[in-house]
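Hi F.,

I've been meaning to write this up properly since the lab meeting, where we talked about keeping a consistent format for the predictions we share between groups. The idea is simple: the sequence comes first, exactly as it goes in, then the structure tokens exactly as they come out, then a line or two of notes. No screenshots and no reformatting. I'm using this chain as the first example so we have something concrete to point to.
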Amino acid sequence: MPEDMQQQLVEFERNRVQLLSVSAQKQQFQLQSNTMAQSIEELEKTKEKKVFKAVGNILVQSDTEKVRKELVEKKESLDLRIKSLQKQEDSLVNRLNKLKSDIENAQSAAVQQEASAEEKS
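Output, unedited:
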């Protein structure tokens, strides 16, 4: 196997592993964002002035509006991170598709060369 093809295969595998990692991170952040959205929705529905929020291993009573604002900020931050990961994911998918095409073309060319060499023999 030609060295450049081996390098492409190594790069393909490295990008594939990176894509899996980015996708897993994005999925985790999406779950967190969805949970925060549900929490924000519940805080907007409540008539309570005080709610409990988790701080480490304890629950602390806090102002409902303050907690809602904190959650909105955290959700916005998560959503930005998700967008960033989506761009990374798209870029990796495009790179993998290009590498796949390059590898397939190189394999096809190698097969044709072998066929030509056998015909000449």
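Notes:
The two ends are 21 Å apart (CA to CA).
The first helix runs from residue 3 to 45.

If this format works for you, I'll send the rest the same way.

G.
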